[in-house]
Amino acid sequence: MSRVVAIVNQKGGVGKSTTAINLATYLAQREEQVLLADLDAQANATSGLGVSTHDSGCMYDVLLEGRALQEVATHTDIPGLHVVPSTINLVGAEVELVSELAREFKLKRALDRMPEGLYTRVLLDCPPSLDLLTLNALAAADEVLIPIQCEYYALEGLTQLMRSIRMVREELNPGLQVGGVLLTMFDARTNLSHQVAGEVRSFFGDRVFSAAIPRNVRLSEAPSFGQPISLYAPQSAGAEAYSAVAEEVLHRG
Ligand code: ADP
Ligand code: MG
User: For position 1, what pLDDT does the model report?
Assistant: First the structure.
């Protein structure tokens, strides 16, 4: 069975897509077979991996047309990494799903129908809200990975997120775990970063990855070249940090 990881935080701009792209890449480079499903209509994970628009289908077709994930998955420049692309069609998905039966379980059904052994890990890049698409991700996931930006207001909204996760556990997916919390855009020179990191670590304990992702300009440049950091700037501090996180993910098992 593949391990399904939802990358969730209803705040925008905290590093979800950057984490999805680069964690997926480093896991694939360590022999995993990875499927990255892009659930955000903004399609940052799709374009950030250099995947352009696709006649072969997208996440919308999986959620609303019942198409198979492996059918719409497209390969990337990274061996072992496939992407289920997002397109602008996803904008309407949220509204269209509302009237569907078992609307929270569309993605779960699609994952259940996937042939055994195709992928060892599935990463879900979620939109910046707790909408039906994110609920689909939470209902389908074994664990959530929460990126937290080391900035003011970072912790605001976490209570709501944890409440949603609890509700999902009660109503949709009893086995859902908080698998990891990742500090992003950490700036070692500022007190604020250290303060946020301290608070997050005291709240989440050892679920916080020991590697924090530094604020790193290479990480913000890479998507405009459609490349993960391992191709764009493999020696950068951002690359080292995401590589270390992938290592931790593998060790946690
Ligand atoms: P989200 O998916 O949560 O909205 P993104 O991953 O798209 O967040 O990141 C938001 C913006 O910040 C993007 O422009 C991205 O390139 C940039 N960014 C993400 N992580 C870092 C980082 N560690 N250092 C510098 N810029 C980053
Ligand atoms: Mg995003």
Answer: 79
